[in-house]
Write a structure and sequence with these properties.
By secondary structure, the chain is of the alpha/beta class.
């Protein structure tokens, strides 16, 4: 473990971004490090308490060479990484539910940019697809229709410079045809689609309205509404923040059914969209330094649409995704059986932490790792004979019972590897960094010191935008 700590410390002493990510050391050869490329997407499976935060997520936020988007359901990851990230760039916290107590949270208008129909489509799609299907019959149909209704309302509100409050009123009242009237002049086909939903007397239409209303239900809380109900010109500038330095954006939500998770997911989707577009304008068609998305509780807090596909093609654009989930069953519940399998199988790397309990997943992992072939000697009537035997490399119970500081890495076409993943609490410099950062965070929350400002210090540069905005 000491060798890994020294390598991590060397990374912090140079201004040149590391060319790879030090994931851990081989259990049987602790001096040998395992490195992943920045283009490798990684899915991490581990139940609550398995060490996702302190053995993996903290390290990936700290060692990121460029912009980081970090999602979480509680304050600990924000508090533990705050000072390290603030020393390298700006930090911003989107915490609409005020779970962290952060006093200077950003506000982001979901309507910003929705005068562009394509932006309205993207936002509505992210909102609608953030709602778990939960086994609903014809769930995909209702998701699609809810997205149609929301994109029409978002675009109509943006055109008239209205607020998300009006959108919520429109969605909850079948008899309100204001958005239809607004769209009739500019996008008559959209107006027709929306009118069909509102005018239909079928039960399916009622279900679509109920699904759209459910997405906006959290906005009944004035506290939650304030995080997204802001004039467009005062809204958090996503593109400027993502593309203007080694900045960090924390997105925080409980991820429950009545939380602001759909809006958090929409903001995460916008971050990926900005990075994706910027990569294609870069000379090498990839971002340098790379952008990193550390998606803790991805299925509940940041289910970015098409995440299974994003895991496969974003790496070549300089966008590295670390997606954290409890297990494969949770993936399939969130993305459907096929989407969950694609997500697990499309990631170039999978990191399995101790304590998984799904028999099917454990058995599948054991079969995937395969068998090792060995010669076995036997004596029969005084003569020795040899025969080949196939032994399972890791049984399902051995994967479940991994030591608390171990993890199983399955990477591309390489043999599976057992890694040692030290916790931040096991190494004094890391422990000191976390406790000092948490102390600063607590002082900021208590009002004993001012928070770092998410805005750029130079107003002129903020107006002009950051690199890649042109």
């Amino acid at each position: 473990m000491a060798a890994m700590m020294k390598a991590f410390a060397r990374q912090g002493k140079t201004n040149r971004p590391p060319l790879a990510v030090d994931v851990g050391c081989l259990v049987e050869q602790p001096r040998r490090h395992v490195w992943l490329q920045h283009r490798d997407g990684v899915i991490v499976h581990g139940p609550t308490g398995a060490g996702k935060t302190w053995r993996v997520a903290w390290q990936r936020v700290i060692d990121a060479p460029g912009f980081v988007l970090a999602t979480t359901t509680k304050a600990d990851l924000v508090a533990a990484t705050l000072t390290e990230r603030a020393a390298r760039g700006r930090v911003a916290v989107f915490d609409p539910e005020r779970l962290t107590g952060w006093p200077a949270g950003i506000a982001w208008s979901i309507l910003a940019g929705c005068t562009d129909p394509d932006t309205a489509i993207r936002r509505a799609d992210a909102l609608a697809r953030a709602m778990p299907l939960e086994g609903t019959r014809n769930g995909a149909y209702f998701e699609q229709k809810a997205a149609t209704m929301l994109r029409c309302c978002l675009h109509a509100a943006a055109l008239r410079e209205l607020s998300i409050r009006e959108v919520r009123v429109w969605v909850s009242a079948r008899t309100n045809h204001t958005p239809v009237d607004i769209l009739a002049d500019t996008l008559p086909d959209w107006a027709s689609e929306l009118d069909q939903i509102l005018s239909s007397a079928s039960e399916s239409s009622d279900d679509v309205l109920a699904a759209a209303s459910r997405l906006l239900e959290p906005l009944a809380s004035p506290t939650l509404l304030a995080a997204v109900d802001i004039p467009v010109e005062q809204s958090f500038d996503v593109a400027e923040f993502v593309l203007s330095g080694v900045n960090t954006l924390y997105l925080v939500s409980k991820g429950t059914s009545r939380s602001m998770a759909p809006f958090v997911a929409a903001l995460a989707t916008e971050v990926h969209h900005v990075a994706d577009r910027a990569s294609q304008r870069a000379p090498s068609k990839r971002l340098d330094p790379p952008v990193r998305l550390v998606l803790d509780e991805m299925n509940n807090v940041a289910p970015i649409p098409d995440l299974p596909q994003i895991m496969t093609d974003s790496g070549g654009k300089g966008i590295m995704v670390w997606a954290f989930a409890h297990n494969q069953d949770q993936n399939e519940l969130r993305w459907g059986a096929e989407g969950g399998r694609v997500l697990a199988q499309s990631a170039p790397a999978m990191l399995v932490l101790p304590g998984l309990r799904g028999v099917e997943e454990l058995s599948a992992l054991s079969r995937l790792i395969g068998e090792r072939r060995r010669w076995e000697a036997s004596l029969h009537e005084g003569s020795r004979t040899y025969s080949l035997h196939d032994d399972t490399v890791l049984r399902a119970d051995e994967i479940r019972e991994l030591a608390s500081d171990h993890a199983l890495l399955i990477y591309r076409n390489a043999p599976a590897m057992l890694l040692s993943l030290p916790s931040v609490w096991e190494y004094a410099p890391w422990r000191h960094t976390v406790t000092a950062s948490t102390r600063v965070f607590d002082d900021i929350v208590a009002g004993r010191r001012p928070p770092p400002r998410p805005e750029h210090s130079d107003p002129q540069r903020r107006r002009e935008g950051g690199p890649g905005d042109e």
